[in-house]
Design brief:
The chain has 198 residues and is of the alpha+beta class. It is built from three helices and nine strands, in the order H-H-E-E-E-E-H-E-E-E-E-E. The chain is globular and about 50 Å long.
C-alpha cells in the first residue's frame, strides 16, 4: 500500500468516526466547537484594501483588463473582465465585458527570496479549482512582495499543473483565532512569473 493510499484510508476512517458521532448526537452542529459558531470575524482592513487596489491597478494595466470585486462567498478577490473579442459571433448580445480569469491578490512585507515558497490556504486553492472547473476560466494569484511582483496560476487542468512544493498546516497565531490555523499549500517561488522588481 502506498503512503498516499494510507493517508486516504486514515482520512476516510476519521470521517467515518466523526459521522458516527454526529449520527449519535442527532445534530451536526453539536459537534462544532463553540469558537467556530456564528459568523467569522473579518480581518481585512482599509489598509489591506488600499494595498489590494494598488496591486489591482498593476494587474489591469499589465493584462489590459478591468475587474469586478467578488462577494465573500466566492473566497477569491476578483473576476477579471475584457471586451468580447468577437462580438459579431458571440452569444453576448448586451455588449457586456466577459470574464477571462479569477484573481486572488496577496501583499507580503518580506522579500521574495526570504522564503523558497509562497503559502496559500488550501481553501483558496480548492475554491480556485472549483471556479475554474465550473467556468472554464483560469485562476491566478498575484503577489506583491517587498521587492517584487509576480503571478502564477492556482488551478490545474489538462495543460497546467500547480507547482506545489508541499502541503502543511500553519497560519497566523497573533489573532487568537483557531480558524487561522489551517491546511496550507506551499507554492515554489520559481512558479511565479515576475513583472518587476519594486
Amino acid at each position: 500500500m502506498t503512503d498516499d493510499q494510507t493517508l486516504v484510508d486514515l482520512f476516510r476512517r476519521d470521517v467515518d468516526q466523526q459521522n458516527k458521532k454526529i449520527a449519535k448526537s442527532g445534530s451536526y452542529f453539536s459537534e462544532i466547537p463553540s469558537q467556530w459558531s456564528g459568523r467569522r470575524k473579518l480581518y481585512e482592513t482599509k489598509g489591506d484594501l488600499g494595498f489590494e487596489r494598488e496591486i489591482l491597478k498593476i494587474v489591469e494595466k499589465k493584462w489590459g483588463c478591468s475587474s469586478k470585486k467578488l462577494q465573500k462567498k466566492y473566497q477569491l478577490d476578483y473576476l477579471l473582465l475584457k471586451n468580447d473579442p468577437d462580438p459579431d459571433f458571440s452569444e453576448n448580445r448586451n455588449d457586456e465585458k466577459i470574464g477571462v480569469a479569477w484573481l486572488e491578490i496577496k501583499n507580503r512585507s518580506n522579500p521574495i527570496k526570504q522564503y523558497p515558497t509562497f503559502m496559500l490556504s488550501m481553501a483558496k486553492i480548492m475554491t480556485a479549482q472549483q471556479l475554474s472547473e465550473a467556468s472554464g476560466l483560469p485562476s491566478f494569484v498575484v503577489v506583491r512582495w517587498a521587492d517584487a511582483i509576480g503571478y502564477t496560476r492556482i488551478d490545474s487542468d489538462d495543460e497546467y499543473e500547480l507547482d506545489v512544493a508541499y502541503i502543511g498546516i500553519g497560519g497566523r497565531t497573533d489573532r487568537n483565532d483557531a480558524q487561522d490555523i489551517e491546511p496550507l499549500v506551499y507554492i515554489r517561488n520559481s512558479a511565479f512569473t515576475l513583472w518587476k522588481n519594486r
